[in-house]
Amino acid sequence: MASLPKKEIEMLKASIIALSLAAPFAAALPTQASAAVDFVVRIAPPAPRYEVVPPPRPGYLWTPGYWSYRNNQHYWVAGTWVRERPGYVYNHPTWVERNGEWRLSQGNWARNDRDHDGIKNSRDHDRDGDGVRNRADPHPNVPGR
Q1: CA angle 53, 58, 60 (to 5 degrees)
Q2: pLDDT digits (tens, 9 = 90+) for 56-108
């Protein structure tokens, strides 16, 4: 059995030590996939709670409370103020029922999404949601006509 040169052994040891120290931190880093994960449950969320909205704060946006899900039960996440982000709109967390399952879409900031549908304006071909593409719609920005 051939032995490795001393320099390679030292580099290998250093690499193993560095990887073992970095591994716990790498597991805690958020990834693109984990940021977009939705909750899927079979139990409908309770009705939203009434919250008193505090007076407006300059530079902040009120995000209302919502029901989240953990440990096999829904729990209330109270509303809070978040700092505004110029050029972005905030999409609130929402529950949607699909095929007997309830999905929670997490709240997020979207750039250039005036109608809050999660599609950028440049790719949104039906901005008012009336089922008529913007090119063929004489009033493409008039929702609920």
Answers
A1: 60
A2: 899 999 999 999 999 989 999 999 999 998 878 888 888 988 888 999 988 88
What torsion do the CA atoms of 25, 31, 33, 36 make, to the nearest 10 degrees? 110
Put simply, whether the predicted model's pTM sits higher than 0.70 gets the answer no
Name, in order, each residue with C-beta under 8 angstroms of 88's C-beta and a sequence gap of 6 or more.
109, 110, 111
Return the structure tokens found at 35. Answer: 């940021």
The identity of residue 95, as a single letter, is: W
In degrees and rounded to multiples of 5, residue 20 shows phi and psi of -70, -30
Q: Which residue has the tokens 């007076």?
A: 55
Q: Which residue has the tokens 């979207």?
A: 110
Task: Tell me if 137 sits within 8 A of 128, measured CB to CB.
Answer: yes
Q: Which of 142, 107, 111, 112 is nearest to 127 (CA)?
A: 142
